[in-house]
């Protein structure tokens, strides 16, 4: 079998994915409530993570990269990695 080098990458003409496109759809409150109430059988760790993401509305990577210094338990506040002010969350007393 003979191998040869390509002169150019075959994906060169492929456009880069755009991150400026907003999502088409968000979960409605009744759908979020249904997810929140049905994740319990998945186990403690994943259940807690899914509920945390639903309650604070942050992206999973923002929560995954969070440090304890970003969390103020007394004020019930979680800072965000993003500089956008709407990304900081006051969790408060959220019940589903």
Description of the structure:
- The structure is a single chain.
- By secondary structure, this protein is mostly helical.
- The chain has a domain of 62 residues.
- Strands 1-2-3 form a three-stranded antiparallel β-sheet, with no helix packed on it.
- It starts with 28 loop residues before the first helix and ends in a 6-residue tail after the last strand.
Unreliable stretches: 85-89
Strand tally, please? 3
Percent helix: 25-40%
* Derived structural class: mainly alpha
Based on CA atoms alone, the radius of gyration comes out at 20 Å
Give average pLDDT, whole number: 77
Largest sheet: 3 strands, antiparallel
> Can you count the helices?
3
Spatial shape: elongated
Please write the string of helix (H) and strand (E) elements.
HHHEEE
> Largest beta sheet: what is the strand line-up?
1-2-3
Strand content: 5-15%
Distance between the termini: 62 Å
Keywords:
96 residues; mainly alpha; 3-stranded antiparallel sheet; elongated
Q: Summary?
A:
29% of the residues lie in helices and 6% in strands. It is mostly helical and 96 residues long. It has a domain at 29-90.
List the helices and strands and how they pair.
Layout: H1 29-38, H2 44-56, H3 60-64, E1 71-72, E2 77-78, E3 89-90
Antiparallel strand pairs: 1-2, 2-3
């Amino acid at each position: 079998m003979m191998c040869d080098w390509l002169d150019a990458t075959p994906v060169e003409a492929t456009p880069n994915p755009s991150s400026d496109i907003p999502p088409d759809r968000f979960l409605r409150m009744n759908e979020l409530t249904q997810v929140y109430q049905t994740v319990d059988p998945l186990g403690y760790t994943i259940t807690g993570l899914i509920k945390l993401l639903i309650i604070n509305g942050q992206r999973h990577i923002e929560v995954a990269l969070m440090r304890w210094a970003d969390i103020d338990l007394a004020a019930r506040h979680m800072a965000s990695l993003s500089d956008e002010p709407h990304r900081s969350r006051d969790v408060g007393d959220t019940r589903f």
